[in-house]
UniProtKB/TrEMBL annotation, chains A, B, C, D, E, F, G:
This is Co-chaperonin GroES. HAMAP family: CH10 (MF_00580). It comes from Rurimicrobium arvi. Belongs to the GroES chaperonin family. It is found in: Cytoplasm. Heptamer of 7 subunits arranged in a ring. Interacts with the chaperonin GroEL. Together with the chaperonin GroEL, plays an essential role in assisting protein folding. The GroEL-GroES system forms a nano-cage that allows encapsulation of the non-native substrate proteins and provides a physical environment optimized to promote and accelerate protein folding. GroES binds to the apical surface of the GroEL ring, thereby capping the opening of the GroEL channel. Pfam families: Cpn10. CDD domains: cpn10. InterPro entries: Chaperonin_GroES, Chaperonin_GroES_sf, Chaprnonin_Cpn10_CS, GroES-like_sf. The keyword Transport does not apply.
Amino acid sequence: MAKKVSTSVNITPLHDRVVVKADAAEQKTAGGIIIPDTAKEKPQRGTVVAVGGGKKDEPMTVKTGDSVLYGKYAGTEISIEGADYLIMRESDILAIL
Amino acid sequence: MAKKVSTSVNITPLHDRVVVKADAAEQKTAGGIIIPDTAKEKPQRGTVVAVGGGKKDEPMTVKTGDSVLYGKYAGTEISIEGADYLIMRESDILAIL
Amino acid sequence: MAKKVSTSVNITPLHDRVVVKADAAEQKTAGGIIIPDTAKEKPQRGTVVAVGGGKKDEPMTVKTGDSVLYGKYAGTEISIEGADYLIMRESDILAIL
Amino acid sequence: MAKKVSTSVNITPLHDRVVVKADAAEQKTAGGIIIPDTAKEKPQRGTVVAVGGGKKDEPMTVKTGDSVLYGKYAGTEISIEGADYLIMRESDILAIL
Amino acid sequence: MAKKVSTSVNITPLHDRVVVKADAAEQKTAGGIIIPDTAKEKPQRGTVVAVGGGKKDEPMTVKTGDSVLYGKYAGTEISIEGADYLIMRESDILAIL
Amino acid sequence: MAKKVSTSVNITPLHDRVVVKADAAEQKTAGGIIIPDTAKEKPQRGTVVAVGGGKKDEPMTVKTGDSVLYGKYAGTEISIEGADYLIMRESDILAIL
Amino acid sequence: MAKKVSTSVNITPLHDRVVVKADAAEQKTAGGIIIPDTAKEKPQRGTVVAVGGGKKDEPMTVKTGDSVLYGKYAGTEISIEGADYLIMRESDILAIL
């Protein structure tokens, strides 16, 4: 499920932040039915491309390359060298897939 | 009361989160009376299918396979391989049945 | 004042939660006067039927069988095997009678 | 100033809670002038009739029999054997008289 | 600037609370000009007449007899033996004069 | 940039509070242009004239005589011997100039 | 991407604050297209020109000269010797570029 993201980004998130490259929203269900826009509010998948150094006494759990699930409205959009990423706190990440 | 959930999911919830498969809402009371929709707002039952690694110095109490009771509005819906689950913090779980 | 509650329930409240069986509201005052509904907003009595394992470094104070006083709006209603109970945090309990 | 309250109550407040029997509101000032209702919003006096076991590492300061001053809207009214009391946290008590 | 307050009050504030006797508001400026009411919203001066025992591991800084400055709306009015006082937390006191 | 403030004030701020004498707002820019009122909402400069003893285990960083920058709406105005000062927490101070 | 900022400023931010010189907003995309104003709400880049001493037991991570990314509305504008800067907490900084 986790697609390789070849891009390596030259950015160091501070403390407990991570940079995530969102996967393209899947337009179809497993059975091939096209999902209308209103049905796409569920958490999104992405790939971690950069990880901060963690907070005091709390090392990070996710690592670069992890395919993760995060809330649809988590993080802040940033654009690095023309590509869009999300920068969020590790606590905004729900799970590693 | 706890039904076996054979599905094993390939997901690792972060920190104190758990993934729960909701039981189908019971449509009838013990006496066989059909419950109207407005009466179904009580906590729901489900089965834990994945458990995070816990927070610092706070191991998890629930484990995979536990039948649990949780608030009706707890957690975030996620869909994994076509099936719907809830991902919530352990603190949203009220009790183990 | 504490009535015996013979029911034992098969439920394990998580952490600092307890399950309480509410006593029937007393309809009459000591002098036998019937209390109108608007006068019945005071804390309620109930009997503890299940107790969680406590929080980290904070063992529980109440135990199964204790007759307790709790805020009228404390806890969440749950129904186990057809009977109604309340599940609440120990901090919602005001006193042991 | 503190009147003896002979009633002993059979109740154990939880943690940092205390049970207080409110003194009757004094209708007259020192000079004998009757105070109108709107002037009676100041803190009230009462007598502590039961004291909880304190919170973790924080023993209680007040003890049964203390005459105390507390905010007019502090605590929750409870009625034990026909008499009215207030159950409040020790932090709602302003001073011992 | 600090006037002696001869009254000693028979009251023990709880924890980090202090009892303060407010100085009479100064009606004139240094130059003798009468200050209109709307200009008197600045912090007020008073004299500490009773001091609590402090919170756990935090002894009190002010002591009885200190002339202090406190926010105009700090504390709760109490009346002891016909005289008006304020009971407030030490953190409501801005400075010792 | 920091002007000497010869006034010494007879006041002891409590805990982490400091007393600051505000510099007069500069009416002109470096180039001599007069700044209209609406452009003067930036942080203000002042000189520390008294410093509290700090909070438990947190000594103070600023000291008497420091020229400091603080938020325009920080602190409470106090008047000591006819002069106006501001009393604020050290955390309201942005920087030492 | 990080431009050298030759200006050295004579200011010591308090505790966990940093002073940042904002980079000029880039008016064009990589492909040379001019970005309209409404599209420029993303985090901004700047260069750290002064760093505070950190909070108790929490040394600072960023250092003078770092090119950083921060929320568009982070910090407070200050002007030092005619030039505009932002003073913000380190926690307002998202990443080091």
